[in-house]
Task: inverse folding
């Protein structure tokens, strides 16, 4: 298996490229619109052909490049079946893991950040999306988020994985790339360190975070599998335009 972690620095999003060495086909998990050309270039440089894009959830801070990839190279669009998006080609849920050739991604329904959020277990790795971040977690105050549900998702689904399971988050804002389940259980300031549900709820209720500046455009855009709104304000155009520089994690 080929595995690469790619970074988009406008929304601090990690995209994961997973390729089959047997067939040369690849999946991009949580691809971001401004880096679609970069991601295709990396895929081709590795001798791979993009077969699918796969989402962990409907994002509020960036627009997926799933639709663009499908237009450019004919890749299929996969995502949580619970979202019920008409533009999804392959619905994924816990009963129907995502499989491509010799690559198997086991879906773990981990709601709380959003109601239909999925994490994906890939061998000794787990792609946690926004449910579990390094020393943190996604917020729970929009898109049917629910802090008690997120606490249970992490403790019942993710923290029951082996301690040495590698954690690959959907975002990081401090230059960190990877963690482990054991590290998050021991160090995560919101969900680890033996924090009770009541302590977690107290933390989440006092974050006092600003309204996401791109959410009103990102959510409908992602419900259409990556359609950038035509009326997007000029100061937000960078979320849809191609990046001049695309650093990788």
Result:
């Amino acid at each position: 298996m080929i595995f690469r972690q790619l970074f988009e620095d406008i929304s601090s999003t990690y995209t994961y490229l997973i390729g089959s060495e047997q067939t040369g086909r690849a999946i991009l998990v949580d691809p971001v619109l401004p880096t679609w050309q970069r991601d295709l270039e990396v895929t081709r440089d590795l001798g791979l052909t993009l077969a699918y894009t796969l989402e962990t959830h409907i994002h509020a801070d960036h627009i997926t490049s799933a639709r663009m990839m499908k237009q450019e190279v004919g890749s299929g669009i996969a995502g949580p079946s619970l979202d019920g998006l008409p533009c999804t080609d392959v619905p994924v849920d816990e009963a129907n893991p995502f499989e491509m050739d010799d690559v198997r991604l086991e879906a773990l329904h981990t709601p709380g950040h959003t109601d239909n959020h999925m994490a994906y277990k890939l061998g000794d790795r787990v792609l946690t999306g926004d449910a579990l971040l390094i020393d943190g977690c996604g917020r729970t105050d929009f898109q049917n988020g629910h802090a008690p549900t997120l606490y249970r998702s992490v403790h019942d689904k993710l923290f029951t994985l082996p301690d040495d399971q590698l954690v690959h988050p959907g975002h990081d804002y401090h230059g960190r790339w990877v963690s482990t389940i054991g590290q998050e259980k021991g160090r995560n300031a919101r969900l680890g360190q033996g924090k009770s549900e009541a302590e977690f709820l107290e933390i989440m209720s006092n974050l006092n975070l600003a309204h996401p500046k791109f959410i009103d455009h990102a959510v409908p855009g992602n419900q259409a599998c990556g359609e950038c709104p035509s009326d997007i304000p000029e100061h937000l155009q960078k979320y849809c335009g191609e990046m001049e520089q695309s650093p990788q994690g």
